[in-house]
Amino acid sequence: MNHLEMFEKIVIQQRARIEKIKEDRTPIDYEGMEKIVIGVIGGDGIGPFITEQARNVLEQILSKEIDSGKVEFRSIDGCTIEKRAAAGKAIPDDVLEKIKQCHVLLKGPTTTPRKGDKWANVESANVAMRKELDLFANVRPVKVPELGIDWVFFRENTECLYAMGSQGINITDDLAIDFRVITTPGTERIARLAFDYARKNGKKKITIVTKANVIKTTDGKFLDVCKRVAEEYPEIETDDWYIDIMTAKLLDEKRRNQFEVFILPNLYGDILTDEAAELQGGVGTAGSANLGTQYAMFEAIHGSAPRMVEEGRAAYADPSSMIRAGSMLLSHIGYQAYADMLSEAIEKCTVTERKVTITGRAGGATGADLTNYILREVKGVKNG
Ligand code: IPM
Ligand code: MG
């Protein structure tokens, strides 16, 4: 295939994708469901350790529902870097099939190979899963009460440079081209989700983040579409910032607590949410929801930290990212009271009371110590 044909193929693929987005799919209704199946994927590196902690917490909170058969936890093995590299696939077929039989997923971080390392350079399992299950919204809350920070990021999760991150073209030895995709319906759906969230949760302000002064076509579209959606929500104040100055403003103590909800294309969302999480205590503290209309996946925002495992420190990894993701899962499947109870316990144990401190190293608390502390807190509330 010559390069023009490769480009043509990409255009055809993306146009077909747009048609699929436009198909109106009724969101899945968990309440009316006989049984909600929660798939658990441990992932790589510290993934299995912290995912186990989060599963433990959720299983204890949902014990009644598990006993009655309303909720089932199901382990999904084989989504490891070894198996993915051997299969030459971001997600092996049999794993994907098992994933699709669940309704929601609790997923530990998976290693993303990059050019030049020891693994076959397959696409990131995260990215593939988000695309395969059409999890178009990556919702990432960051809260630092003592600094007055209460942010929720709505990161578009299927487009931007990620849409074809593994389909760039080496035209010659000297010329490499990647492609960035922004679509109207793809932007509309993330914008609408963010504005609906703001409306339902009494948020007064939404900030759109792009680099539309330079990346005129794709970011220009993203900004235009978000602004058009904003017109339907006149009670919410909307402003827009460029990504460079936005990264600075998150550090501006006078300004940052005025921001509430952000909407961003995929890559800017990836970068800005790591910065935001650092203010909360590190990426190890931040969970996220990957939402589509048919599936949802809950995970940490950080990677698999293989070095921690190599250095024998996996047991000291902070599970609070995954436990926070677990609280978002509870809320998503309709157990809002449990979700609130869990997030209050996390807040008490990791922010206000902090009887246990995770440092990531021996000498600090283990992940299991923190989990037990959170569970004691939850049980205190649940039983008393
Ligand atoms: C994240 C991660 C992923 C991303 C990686 C692992 C592909 O950084 O969830 O933010 O870039 O989306
Ligand atoms: Mg990231």
Descriptive report:
By secondary structure, the chain is an alpha/beta fold. The protein has a domain at 33-135 and 292-384: Isopropylmalate Dehydrogenase, CATH 3.40.718. The chain contains 14 helices and 12 strands. The strands form 2 sheets. It has a 10-stranded mixed beta sheet with strand order 2-1-3-12-11-4-5-10-8-9, sandwiched between helices. The model has no long low-confidence stretch (mean pLDDT 96). The site of magnesium ion (MG) has 3 residues, from helix 10.
Give the structure's gist in a few sentences.
This protein has 384 residues and is of the alpha/beta class.
Describe the secondary structure blueprint for this structure:
Layout: H1 3-22, E1 36-41, H2 47-61, H3 63-68, E2 71-75, H4 81-87, H5 93-100, E3 104-107, H6 125-132, E4 137-144, E5 149-156, E6 169-172, E7 175-177, H7 184-200, E8 205-210, H8 218-230, E9 237-242, H9 243-249, E10 261-264, H10 266-280, E11 287-291, E12 296-300, H11 306-310, H12 320-332, H13 336-352, H14 367-383
Parallel strand pairs: 1-2, 1-3, 3-12, 5-10, 8-9, 8-10
Antiparallel strand pairs: 4-5, 4-11, 6-7, 11-12
The chain binds 3-isopropylmalic acid and magnesium ion.
